Amino acid sequence: MKHLISVLVENKFGTLNRVAAMFSARGFNLESISIGETEDPEISRMTIVTRGEDRIISQVLKQLNRLVDTIKVTDLTHQPHVERELLLLSLKLSKSTQHEIFELANVFKGKVVDIKQKSITIEFVGSPDKINTAIDLFRPFGIRELARSGAVAIHRGES
Amino acid sequence: MHNNGEKLIGSEIFFECLRRENVEYIFGYPGGALLKVYETLHDVEDIEHILVRHEQGATHMAEGYARATGRPGVVLVTSGPGATNTVTGIANAYMDSTPLVVFTGQVPSSLIGNDAFQEADIVGITRPITKHNFLVKDVRELATTIRKAFFLATNGRPGPVLVDMPKDVLNAECMFEWPENVDIRGFKPTIKCHANQVQKAAKMIAKAKRPLLYVGGGVITAEASEELRKLAIDQQIPVTMTLQGLGAFPGDHPLSMGMLGMHGTYWANQAVSNCDLLIAVGARFDDRVTGKVDTFATHAYKIHNDIDPTNVDKNIKVDLPVVGDSKDFLASLIEAMPKSREDRSAWIAEIEKWRKQCPLDYEIEPDSLKTEFVIDEVSKQTKGHAVVVTDVGQHQMWTSQYYKFTEPRSIITSGGLGTMGFGLPSAIGAAFGVTDRPVLLFSGDGGLMMNIQELVTAVYNKLPIKIFLINNSYLGMVRQWQELFHQEKYTFTDLASSNPDFVKVAEAFGCKAMSASNPEAARNAITEALAYNDGPVLVDFRVIRKDMVFPMVPAGGSISDMLLARLNPKTMV
Ligand SMILES: Cc1ncc(C[n+]2csc(CCOP(=O)(O)OP(=O)(O)O)c2C)c(N)n1
Ligand SMILES: [Mg+2]
Which fold has domain A2-75? Predict the structure, then answer.
C-alpha cells in the first residue's frame, strides 16, 4: 500500500542523494520525494511517497533512520495529516475551449498564472488524488506541459 | 603535540586529531593531493605510517588491525586512483561491520567538478558502502569532522567512514580547537536493551526444552564472550556460531556446535532445524546461514538481539526482537533468568547423536596432503590460540571447520563481501596490532595473487606472519561448484599451468619460504614456520587438487538437507 513518510534531515550537501541512493540500492519503491527548508535553516523536511507491504515499509523506515543525516522519521500514513501537491498545468487555448477551461479550473480552485493567445497556465493545489483527477479532466483540452511538485505533508495540529 | 588555540594548517590539524584519537598506525600511500600531509608527516614521531604497495592493501590492513584489536583502522590515500583503489576494502568493511576511518586527498575545492587531474567523486562513489562520509570544505571544520568520523566508525554498529580532504583545506590555516564532545543528532544508537523484552526472553529461555544460541560477530564486537559463556553453561544451551562469530564461544567446549549454514557442521544445522527456541545474538540471518528462509528453524520461537534495528525482520521474521548492544543483552539476560529451568540433557544427547552420525573427519594418506590435515595440525600446534586470517575460498571454509578457535578476535576473514585478496594484507594489519599471539594466514593460490605485492610490506616491517598457502592450483571453490552444479565444465579455474612457483616468488620478495606435499613434511614445515620470528614465512602446501568442502548446503537449499559427500552427477537433476 501507499505510504507517506515525513523525514527531517540535516540541511546539507548530499543529503537528498543519500536518501534517494538508499532507496535505489535496496530496491525500495520511490514514487515521489520533495524537500525544502523548515523553520530551522539547518533542517530540511523531506516528504516521501513509497509503496510496499508492511514488512518492506518497516525496513524503509528503519533504513531511513539509520542514515546519519536523518533526524526524525515519521510514517504519516495512519496519523492525522494534511497532504498537498502543487500542479502547474499548461494547456492549449482556443476560443471554443476557453469557457470550459475557466469553468473547470474554478471547480478545482485553480489560479491562472499565465495566459497567452494560444496557451494558458493554471496552478492547482490539492491532495495528489485531486491533482490526478484534475489532470484527467483537463486532458481532452490538450496538455502542452505539466509539472508536479510531489507531495508535501505535515501532521495536523493538536486540538 | 599541539594545543587548543594554536594556529595550525590543515595537515597539522589532521595529525593532531589522529594523535588525540590515539591512532598508532596509518596505512597509507602518498600522492599529489597529499603532498602537504606527507610533508607534515616528516616531523610526526608518535604515529607510525606504514607504506603499502596498493591502496586496496591499505584498507585490508586497516581491517585486519581493527578486527584483531577492536580499534579503528586508519587509511590515508591520495585523490582519484588512490581513492578508488580503496573501494573494495571499504565495501568489505561495511559488510563485516569493521571500524575504519579512510582519509582521501581531494583536488583543490575550486577544481572540484571540473574533471581535474586525479579527481574522482569518492564521496559519491562510497556513499552506499560507508556508514557515513564527509567532504571537508573548510579547514575550520576539519577537527570536528575527524572527531565525528571516529565516533561514527566505532559507535553503535561499527563500520567504515570516509573523510575527503581537498588540497587547499590541508594547506589552509586556522585556530585549532579539539571538540571534546561529539553530538550527532541523527545518530543515537540504542545500546541498552529494553527491560521488558529481556524479561520475556528470559522466560522463554527458562521454559525451552531445545534451545540454541546462534551467535554472530556482534558478540565479538561487543566483547561479550564472558557473558555468552556464562549464559550458555549455566543454562546448558548449545552454541552455534557464524563465520564472524567463531571464537565467541570456545570451539573445544562440549556445548560448541561449531559453525552453522552452508558449510557449517551437520549437527549445528540439524540443531537449528529442530530447536524449539533460537536465540540469535549479534547475528543477521545472512543467506549463507539460513539457506532457504521458508524452511529455516521452522519449529523455533525466535529471539533476535542486534544493535542495528535494520537487521531485525530483514531476512527472517522473528518473534521477539531485542535491539541493543549484545553485551548488555547477555548480561541483563543472566540477571533476569529465573531460578529453575527445563532440563536439556535429552536435547544435548540428541545433538551428540547427530555429531556422531556425520562428524567432521578426514583420512590421512601418507603420500598426499589434505587441507583438512594441514589446518588441523596448525590448530593443534598453536593450541587454538593464534590469530587466524583467511582469504576466500575452500581453504576459508576448511579453516572454519578444522581450526578450533578458542577465544574471541581469533578469526579474521571476509564474510559478507567474500573478497579474494583480503587475506595477506589483513594478516599484515593484524600483526601490527597483535604481538602476543602468532598471526597466521591461510590463503588460496588464487587469492594470494590478488594482493601479493604486500609481501614487501610484511618483509620490510619484519612481521612474523605465517603464510600457509593452500595450493591446489585451482580456483578451488569455483571449481567445486562447477563439479557439483555445472556439469563439470571447468572453465578458467585450473591454474596449474599458469601459477608461479610461490616459493621463488616469496624468496624474491625476501621472504623465507618452503614447500610441503605430504603429511610428514607438512608437520615439520608448520613447526619450523611457527618457530621462525624474524619476518614472514611462506609454506607452499601442495594439497590434493580436487578435494571438495563438505558438508554443504546447495545455494537456496534447506539447511536440514546437506550434501555430505559428492553426489553422482549422473543421478543429479
Ligand atoms: C575478488 C573476487 N573475485 C572473485 C571471487 C569469486 N571466487 C570465490 S572463491 C574463488 C576461488 C578462490 O580460489 P583460491 O584463492 O585458490 O582458493 P581455494 O578455493 O582454491 O581454496 C573465486 C574466484 C571472489 N570471491 N572475490
Ligand atoms: Mg586454490
Answer: Alpha-Beta Plaits (3.30.70)
Structural domain including B41 reads 7-175
Say how far apart CA B195 and CA B399 lie, in whole Å: 39
**Does the Cβ of B392 fall within 6 Å of ligand 1?**
yes
B10-20 vs B142-154: helix crossing angle, rounded to 10: 30
Measured in angstroms, the CA of B36 and the nearest CA of chain A are apart by 26
Q: Hey, is the C-beta of B186 within 8 angstroms of any chain A C-beta?
A: yes
Q: How confident is the model at residue A158 (pLDDT cuts 50, 70, 90)?
A: confident
Average pLDDT over residues B539-544: 98
Per-residue model confidence (pLDDT) at position A157: 84
| Residue tagged 590435515 (cell numbers) | B373
ipTM: 0.91
- Ligand 2 centre and the CA of B132: distance in Å? 36
CA distance B77 to B62: 12
Number of domains in chain B: 3
Considering chain A, tell me which residue range(s) the CATH 3.30.70.260 domain(s) occupy.
2-75
pLDDT digits (tens, 9 = 90+) for B201-223: 999 999 999 999 999 999 999 99
Query: How big is chain B, counted in residues?
Result: 573
**Structural domain includes residue B19:** yes
Relative to beta strand B100-106, strand B73-77 is parallel
Residue A159: per-residue pLDDT:
72
Write the pLDDT tens digit of every residue in B448-484: 999 999 999 999 999 999 999 999 999 999 999 999 9
Q: Tell me, yes or no, whether B170 and B207 share the same domain.
A: no
Q: B109 in contact with A at a CB cutoff of 8 Å?
A: no
**Start-to-end C-alpha separation, chain B:** 69
**pLDDT for B567:** 55
Distance, CA of B314 to CA of A141 (rounded, Å) = 48
pLDDT per residue as tens digits for the range B334-358: 999 999 999 999 999 999 999 999 9
Distances (CA, A) of B87 to A158, B82, B168, B474: 49, 10, 24, 27
| H helices, E strands: number in chain B | 23, 20
User: Do you find a cis peptide bond into B254, omega within 30 degrees of 0?
Assistant: no
Query: Looking at domain A83-155, does it have CATH number 2.60.120.10?
Result: no
